[in-house]
Amino acid sequence: MLGKKLVTAQKRGETRALCLGLGMVACSMMMYFFIGITIVPFYTKSVWTTESVCKVLKANIKDKVFCPNSEGSEDEEIFPYPCLQVWVNLTASGQEVMLYQTEDTLERNPKCSYVPDKLENSKEVKAQIETIASNFKKYQTFPCYYDPGGTQTNVILSRLYPSKGLLFAFLWPTLMFTGGCLIVVLVKISQYVSVLSAWQ
């Protein structure tokens, strides 16, 4: 009687462990699919792939310049904020080019090097942009990214999805997939050993 109960409990435990392993594998596949349709296209779309050194030539703030918050947006409202324009000397080519914060900055507003996220408080936005401009004047040389193919003549300060960020995004689903596969394999080995012991 006790032996039957132990066998039943063992089978239930194996079933639960098997369901857990298969669930982890399924969740990891869903995460792979989500990353593949969201992050990977932005990473492959970016042409600013080569890192170089940029030296600030001038950083100007144009007051009372109306810049659209989003290019091609259905919302026709235009937000006024100080337009920071940073021109740098690209060491790789020796050219004078305009610097943008990220790839998204160029799409949102090609006139400005920086586009603030929150535009509710104009005083805070102005202070933030002035701080950024003073930092550029203080730190004259810094790493930047440019397009080696020459499609884009401008440069960006940082990539939205760098290689390390993409690897980190794939790290968790990979660990989950590996853990799920290990659980399934261990359950199958346990079942095989149980059957082998029963025959012996």
Strand-helix topology:
Elements: H1 2-45, E1 50-62, E2 66-67, E3 79-80, E4 83-90, E5 96-100, H2 103-108, H3 122-138, E6 141-146, E7 155-156, H4 163-199
Parallel strand pairs: 5-7
Antiparallel strand pairs: 1-4, 1-6, 2-3, 4-5, 6-7
Helix pairs in contact: 1-4
Which labels suit this protein?
single chain; 200 residues; alpha+beta; 2 domains; 5-stranded mixed barrel; 4 helices; 52% helix; 19% strand; elongated
What is the rounded distance between the termini? 21 Å
- Total count of helical runs of at least 4 residues: 4
Total E-strand runs: 7
The major pleated sheet works out as: 5 strands, mixed, barrel
Query: How many domains?
Result: 2
| Helix and strand sequence | HEEEEEHHEEH
Shape label: elongated
Instruction: Look at the helices and sheets and give the structural class.
Output: alpha+beta
Strand content: 15-25%
**Regions with little confidence, pLDDT below 50 for 5+ residues:** 69-77
Radius of gyration: 27 Å
Helix content: 40-55%
Keywords: Glycoprotein, Ion channel, Ion transport, Membrane, Transmembrane, Transmembrane helix, Transport
InterPro entries: K_chnl_Ca-activ_BK_bsu (IPR003930)
Subcellular location: Membrane
GO molecular function: calcium-activated potassium channel activity; potassium channel regulator activity
Could you characterize the architecture of this molecule?
The protein folds into two domains: 112 residues, no CATH class; 38 residues. It has four helices and seven strands.
